[in-house]
Task: structure prediction
Amino acid sequence: MSRCLSERSIDHVVLERGTVAHSWKTQRWDSLRLLTPNWLSRLPGYEYDGDEPDGFMDMPEVIAFIERYAAVVSAPVLTETTVSSVRSVDGGYEVITNTGTWRCRAVVLASGACNTASVPLIAEAVPSDIDMLTPLEYRNVDQLDDGGVLVVGASATGLQLADEIQGSGREVTISVGNHVRIPRTYRGMDIQWWMDASGLLDERYDEVDDVTRARKVPSPQLIGTPDRRMLDLNAITGGGARIRGRLGTIRDGTALFSGGLRNQCTLADLKMNRLLDTIDKWAAEAGLDEGGERERHPPTRVGDEPMALDLTDGSIRTIVWATGFRPDYSWLDVDVLDHKNRVRHDGGVTTAPGLYLIGSTFLRRRKSSFIHGAGDDATDLSEHLAGYLDGNLATTP
Result:
């Protein structure tokens, strides 16, 4: 957004509570890699230029990528500047920070969608001798007790952590709810190549039937590794992990799971094959039908899994809550939050004149939550913002 505003000669400042790439430095586990290949890491006026375009950046590489971008675009970043309040004042906004107060005509909320781990209330019923961690706190397996681990959540984060923990020799049980299963590669190319080339990732928020539902779709079961292996529930159970249904409640020290595991897995398999059918159709229309085998993967293996797990017998020593994240707008004193404390907006244009949102899932396009999705969203919103400052736009979306 800073780059786009600079191109329009709009005076602005970027306020950062820590340093550039702060959350990447402080809230990511050691082995994490991006889910998108390096060639897809591109921003306005900047893109990956290293020696491994088909690789996946690890955290030090991501941090360096963002730090270099800030320098290349000469972003006016003020670090160690924590915002404590944003409120409407005299047709503009007052921004209060630990280093002083700012007055401005417009504000862009770019504080991220994953500030806080979403831990269900049932965590309060976990026996006191069991350790609990969220993905924002987990760094590596050395933090864990030597005993078994229950991972709650089977999207990208849950499966990656379960895979790593299982590799340390610990027994892993993973609780599975709604999830998205897709292959890492298809017909000889990375799945992200197909989704980018076919335009699937460019689908706009105003082109889908139910954008609210689309914004709740879990992150796909993917992992970025040099061998580009597929990580799904079959890979996890093949390594010895046990799967259970969605965790419903904990009663008297016993975790109780839903009986819908088979249906959840069947639905995920069906959606994966529909995606591959869509890619096949596009490939045929684009004249690419000669490349790669149209493989289909075996259905997810589901047996008669128990619906209860005793948390008092010592078999489970740690629970990892991979149950999603939510933004933190405790400092936002503008009436744009809904009952779930999420910003009400239309493609990033909020209901408050001059207040914008960027960096949220499916903000304007399916790719909004990826690095390469930020550029198009910023271009659109900076155009709207410029029109607002010039007085050429209505004050509502």
Q: What stands out?
A: DSSP finds nine helices and 25 strands in the chain.
